[in-house]
Amino acid sequence: KQHIKEAQAFTTEDKTTLEEFRIKYLGSKGLLKDFFAEFKNVPNEQKKEFGQVINELKNTAEEKVKSIQELLESKTESINLFGDLSRPGTPINIGSRHPISLVKNQILDVFSTIGFNVSEGPEIEDDWHNFTALNLPEYHPARDMQDTFFIQTNPDVLLRTHTSSVQVRYMENNKPPIRTISPGRVFRNEAISSRSHCIFHQVEGLYIDKNVSFADLKQTLLYFTKEMFGKSKIRLRPSYFPFTEPSAEVDIYWGLKTETDYRITKGTGWLEIMGCGMVDPNVLKNCGIDPNEYTGYAFGMGIERIAMLLYQIGDIRMFYENDVRFLEQFKSSL
Ligand code: PHE
C-alpha cells in the first residue's frame, strides 16, 4: 500500500526518470514481478486482499507511465512544430504568368529600350476612335474587314477591333514627338478555330516626329525581330490599311524544324506577324497633328501568334481555356 502511495505521487518531466520508474515497478526484475512471485506463498485467507493490492499497484504504475509519456510526447511535438526547420514544409502553390503576359512583357521590353512608352485605352470604344479618326468614314468598305461586335448602334458603341484606337487617343492628348506602344485585348466576330479567336491581344506602335521615313520603320522592325526572335529574316509585302499609306505586311522566316512550325506557318516556314505603314496624313489631321510638319509610322501585331511560335503552341484556343496543365508549364518563365 505504501508503494501505491509512492507511485501515485510520482511525477517527472524527464524521460530517463520515467524509464527508471517503469523498470522499478513494471520491469522484468521489478517490484510487481516479485509480488506476483510471492503470491503463491501468501496464506489462502489473505490471497484475495493481497491480489487486490498488487493489482491496484500494477494499474497505478501502468497508468502513471502512460499519462506521463503522453504528456512528454505532446510537449516535444509542439517544440518540433516550431523548432525543427528540417521538417518538410507544405508546398505553397505559386501561380505562373500567362504566356500572353510573358510575351507581351517581352515585346514591351524590346520597345522600351528604344524609347517607346506604354499607353492603354478602353476596350469599349466609340465609332470615332476605332474607325472614323482612322480614316474609315461611315460606309467605308474596309469596316467590313474588322468583323465588329457592336454593343449599341446609335450612337455607335463597340468592342474595339484593334488598339489603333489607343493611338488615336494618344495623338489627341499628346504633342509630337510621340513614341508609344499600346498593348491590349481586342475583339472580332470571327469563327473560332485553332488559328483564330474572337478575342485576342495586340501590341500596336506609333512613332511621330519630323522627317520620320519608311526606312526608320524598316530598321525598327529589323531590330525588333532580332531582339524578339534572335533572327531578323523578314519580308515586307505591300498591303492596304485605311490608316497607313503606304502599307505593308511583315512576314518572318521561322523555318520548319517542328511539326508545330509546319502547322503554324502552313508549311511555308514564313509567318505574317504584323501590319505596318506610314501614318496616313488624314489620320494626323483628324487627331490635331499637322501633316505638313510631321510624319510617322505605325505597326500592329497579334501577341497570340508570336506566343504560338515562341512556345510552340499549335492551337490558339489553349490561351483562353485556363487549363492548369497548360498554364503550369510556364512556371519557370516568370
Ligand atoms: N490595326 C491593324 C490591325 O488590327 C494593324 C496595323 C496597325 C496595321 C498599324 C498598320 C498599322 O490589323
UniProtKB/TrEMBL annotation:
It catalyses: tRNA(Phe) + L-phenylalanine + ATP = L-phenylalanyl-tRNA(Phe) + AMP + diphosphate + H(+). Its cofactor is Mg(2+). The keyword Iron does not apply. Binds 2 magnesium ions per tetramer. Transmembrane segments: none annotated. Its main location: cytoplasm. GO terms for molecular function: ATP binding; magnesium ion binding; phenylalanine-tRNA ligase activity; tRNA binding. PROSITE patterns: AA_TRNA_LIGASE_II. Mg(2+) binds at E245. InterPro entries: aa-tRNA-synth_II, aa-tRNA-synth_II/BPL/LPL, Phe-tRNA-synth_IIc_asu, Phe-tRNA_ligase_II_N, Phe_tRNA_ligase_alpha1_bac, Phenylalanyl-tRNA_Synthase, tRNA-bd_arm. Gene3D superfamilies: Bira Bifunctional Protein, Domain 2. Pfam families: Phe_tRNA-synt_N, tRNA-synt_2d. Its EC number is 6.1.1.20. It is found in: Cytoplasm. The keyword Protein biosynthesis applies. Residues 103-321 form the Aminoacyl-transfer RNA synthetases class-II family profile domain. Belongs to the class-II aminoacyl-tRNA synthetase family. Phe-tRNA synthetase alpha subunit type 1 subfamily. PANTHER family: PHENYLALANINE--TRNA LIGASE, MITOCHONDRIAL, PHENYLALANYL-TRNA SYNTHETASE. This is Phenylalanine--tRNA ligase alpha subunit. The lineage of its organism: Bacteria, Pseudomonadati, Bacteroidota, Flavobacteriia, Flavobacteriales. The gene is pheS.
